[in-house]
Amino acid sequence: FSWEVLLFTVALGLGGMAAARCPGPCICDNLRSQVLCLNGNLTAIPGTIPQLTKNLDLRGNSFTVIPVGAFLDTPYLTHLDLQRCKVERLEEGAFRGLGRLVYLNLASNSIALLYQESLDGLSSLQQLILEGNRIEEIQPGAFGHLGSLTVLDLRANALVYLPDMVFQGLQVLRWLRLSHNALHVLGSEAFAALPALRRLSLDHNELQALPSEALARLDGATRLDLGHNPITYIAEEALAMASLKHLFLDHAALQDVAPDAFIHSPQLRTLDLRENELRGLPPLAGAGGLARVSLAGNPLLCSCLLRPFHDWLTRARVQAEGSCTAPPALRGRALDSLRPPEMRCGRPLPLPSPTTPLEQSRVAGSGQCPQGCACSPDFHHGSCENRDLREIPRGFPGDTHLLDLRRNTFRVVPPGAFPGLKELVSLHLQNCGIEVLQPGALQGLDNLVYLYLTSNRLSTLAAAAFKGAPQLAYLDLDHNAFTHLPVGIFQLLPNLISLHLQHNAIRELGEGDLAGAGGLRWLYLTGNTIKRIAPTALAPTKMLEKLHLEGNCLVEVPTSALWGLPALSELKLSRNPIKHVRDGAFLPVASSLQHLYLDNMGLERISPGAFTGLGPKIRSLFLESNKMSNIPNMSNFTGLEILNLRDVPFHCDCQLLPLRRWIDKLNLRVGATCGSPAEARGLKVKLSTTFQTCPGWRRGEAGGASPDKTKAASKPSKKKRSGKSPGRSLKKSRA
């Protein structure tokens, strides 16, 4: 310790005038050309940082906006750390002049948009960390000036879509990290401008299918992470990545993989398929370099149907991890311990015939593939997507598990439309112009679990249409024309878990509408026109965990309808015209509620007892973009991880003092600003000096300032440059 003190003393001595310029809350080490200003409550970039500084650490301050040319006085910086600085916006040209910077960390801020020139001037930057922001959109050209960047970290943001050429300019980028976003659409040219990319992380997103076109642009990538996405199927020739060696598809929703899925990825060596829903795999054509396949955590059926895959593993000398779930005699046995004679089927196999292996598979599947469609008999998958069909084709193999009929024009689904498909698990009928699902349409689909009817023209459903599909668990009816819930269907769907009815025209939830939906856990009703929910409408759904009602026409919290929902943990009421939240509004679900969304409602008043019963279980509360001037006491919300109070015009007088003190104690970005009185408008609640005249105010209270310091802070010093004074910084925080 004494040695470090000695070095630091020498550094101060050698620094001369540079050391004398060290900003007050900072520590300057001139030997290492390093300045630390950690957790100093700074609201503007200090203006007296030594010019020769190379490493500047500003973590844990409160800048809100990084203005144009904020670092022009420190042109020798190579490392800049701005983590946890409550940054909401990077002005165009914010980093101009930092041509030597190689490392920039902006993690754990509140940046929502990257403008075209936000990162201008960083020609030497090699690592850019933007993890844990709120980035929803990246404007084309945002990375155009980062020609030296090798690592771009965009994890844990709010990205939903990647447009074409969004990463243009990143000619030497080697690792792109996009994990933990909400990506479900990727432009076909999204990755076209990344010639040097070696690793792409897309795990923990919302991709429902392999983005084949986008990935085909990555000729040099060797590792691809796609785990924790709801991907159900890997189609024929789905992955064409010439250099890919390591593919991770663990913890997805895979039910099938086509035999030639990886035929255009000849360098593939490791394939991680852990924790999916695979009952088996076909021999994988073209994967001659594959050394290891992990199937642990899949419900493998080690019958004669798995024997071709098992034989292929032996011939190709591929190491396989995983164990049998069935039949009972082989349960728990490791794949690599099985001998072919043990892998038997319950009924005699047909006698050999002089047919090709493909034809043998089709015969074994007990059906030929309909003309114009594609069937993968080993994989148990059938597809007639976008074939301009007018009638639902028949004659699929009887062991088909997944059937994809999207983007055709059927209009009517007649009775018995899917004969002989008792093993079907997943049925895709999106964008088919369907107007009528006739009684008996799903008859015989004894094992159907997933039914997708998104983007059709359905306005009503006969209960009898679902007769014969008792295992249905996921029903997606988004983007149809329903004006009310399809009454009576739930009696025939005892295993229904998830119901999607978003973006229809439903006007109310009436008594009995959900009768029979006792196992429902997730109900999505976003973007309807619901004005009323009957007090007993939700009563049958006693296991309900998520209720999404945002973007409807409710004028009050449907408190009476929330009784009897002991498991409800997430309630979304955003974008409803609710002006007043009354006392006890959430009392019925107080013991279970964890996530509450009350944002963007034009809310004018929250009664003092509105949050009665809520407490430590609440983890996130969204109140942004409303009109109230105060909120109730929430001091018992000790488990909060997210609290958003942005764009709420708080009246910063003595009545708000309890909230201000509570915010002081929170280690969270809340974004609360004063809307009145006039002298405080636009200031952060934590920084407003209007509370200093309140009875009980303690001189030097956390976040406050003495009257002398306040006076100095409210008037910019003439000696300080414009744009770096505290007064200027506070004015920027209104944005």
UniProtKB/TrEMBL annotation:
* Chief location category: secreted
Which InterPro entries does the record cross-reference, listed alphabetically?
A: Cys-rich_flank_reg_C, Leu-rich_rpt, Leu-rich_rpt_typical-subtyp, LRR_dom_sf, LRR_TM_domain-containing, LRRNT
Q: Where is this region: Disordered?
A: 695-735
- List each copy of the LRRNT domain by range: 21-55, 368-402
Q: Where is the composition biased (Basic residues)?
A: 716-735
The UniProt keywords, alphabetically, are:
Disulfide bond, Extracellular matrix, Glycoprotein, Leucine-rich repeat, Repeat, Secreted, Signal
- Spell out the GO cellular component terms annotated for this protein, sorted alphabetically and separated by semicolons: plasma membrane
Q: Name one Pfam family in it.
A: LRR_8
SUPFAM superfamilies for the chain: L domain-like (SSF52058)
- The UniProt entry's coiled-coil ranges are none
Query: Does Repressor count among this protein's keywords?
Result: no
Q: Which residues form the LRRCT domain?
A: 298-346, 649-695
Assembly, per entry: Associates with collagen and binds to collagen fibrils.
Q: Can you tell me which family this protein belongs to? A: Belongs to the small leucine-rich proteoglycan (SLRP) family. SLRP class IV subfamily.
Protein role:
Potential negative modulator of chondrocyte differentiation. Inhibits collagen fibrillogenesis in vitro. May influence chondrocyte's differentiation by acting on its cellular collagenous microenvironment.
Task: Indicate what this protein is called per its UniProt record.
Answer: Chondroadherin-like protein
